[in-house]
Specification:
Elements (H helix, E strand, L loop, with lengths): L2 H4 L13 H12 E2 L2 E10 L5 E6 L23 E3 L1 H15 L3 E5 L7 H12 L5 E6 L2 H5 L1 H8 L4 E7 L4 H8 L8 H11 L3 E7 L7 H14 L1 H5 L2 E3 L5 H10 L8
Parallel strand pairs: 3-5, 5-6, 6-7, 7-8, 8-9
Antiparallel strand pairs: 1-2, 2-3, 2-4
Helix pairs in contact: 3-4
The structure holds iron/sulfur cluster (SF4).
Iron/sulfur cluster (SF4) binds next to loops.
Length: about 260
């Protein structure tokens, strides 16, 4: 068995689906050490009208349209470890230099490293910053309701849950994860709803990779939790970033871009 079958890097044509919770644990062994989490950088970007961003290393999905840099695929080779205090100071320093009041963690999957993230959220809660945006694929929050309960105590936290599919087959094809984990992100949404956390859902509904019937299935699943979630769905399309093009090619997915 080769290293890449033990630790999957990309979706390929003959890919064997993986357990995303198992992959989360394997990735945490690489990107979390003594409550320190790996980040590659901290900087302010223009989205959300200016937000200080921590770029995390490592994910438990392998979406073929992913734009993240190579640290997603080779987490052992990228980033430096930061304690919650060090990550907060880096985020705060970038925010203060550019005069922005919002903070987020993005890049890969920020919910890896539960204790690190909860402590970081506590530091933001007690700070001058007004909002912390957490962008997640939702898998871990779907199987760990206690994690959602802890997050619900922070009033400055807002989540963006990024969905990948409207049915199990599409989910496994796009993410590389086993089809029977398709429900996990929807369970996360139910948990967030039940614990009254502020959030909205986004989804990769690009018609080049998601048939209209599947998009409808996704909207119906969301509407089953709340019609507002379906109505306010943020829909995404694939952008031709170099890393995205490379991953699409490895997965054997041919789509056209206007460049
Ligand atoms: S798109 Fe998001 S969830 Fe999918 S592999 Fe990239 S970072 Fe992970």
């Amino acid at each position: 068995m080769g290293a890449d079958s033990v630790y999957p890097r990309y979706v390929t044509k003959d890919f064997v689906p993986f357990d995303p919770i198992g992959l989360a644990k394997k990735t945490e062994q690489i990107v979390v050490k003594d409550n320190k989490r790996k980040y590659t950088d901290f900087y302010v970007v223009r989205v959300y009208r200016g937000i200080s961003t921590g770029y995390t290393v490592g994910c438990n999905f392998r979406c073929f349209y992913c734009w993240s840099d190579e640290s997603r695929d080779f987490p052992e080779s990228y980033g430096k470890f930061y304690s919650p205090e060090e990550a907060f100071e880096s985020l705060a320093g970038a925010a203060r230099r550019k005069g922005v009041s919002k903070i987020r963690i993005s890049g890969a999957e920020p919910t890896l490293g539960k204790r690190h993230l909860v402590e970081l959220l506590g530091l933001v809660e007690d700070s001058e910053f007004s909002l912390f945006i957490l962008e997640t694929n939702g898998t871990i929050l779907g199987v760990d309701e206690d994690y959602v309960e802890q997050i619900s105590k922070f009033k400055k936290v807002y989540l963006r849950v990024s969905l990948k599919a409207g049915n199990a087959e599409g989910f496994s094809w796009r993410t590389g994860a086993m089809a029977d984990s398709f429900e996990f992100p929807f369970r996360a949404i139910q948990n967030l709803w039940d614990h009254r956390v502020s959030f909205h859902c986004a989804a990769m509904t690009d018609p080049r990779i998601m048939p209209s019937k599947e998009r409808q299935q996704l909207l119906e699943k969301l509407a089953g939790i709340s019609r507002d979630l379906a109505r306010n769905l943020e829909e995404e399309v694939i952008d031709p970033y170099p890393n995205t093009l490379s991953r699409l090619k490895k997965a054997g997915v041919n789509i056209r871009f206007r460049i």
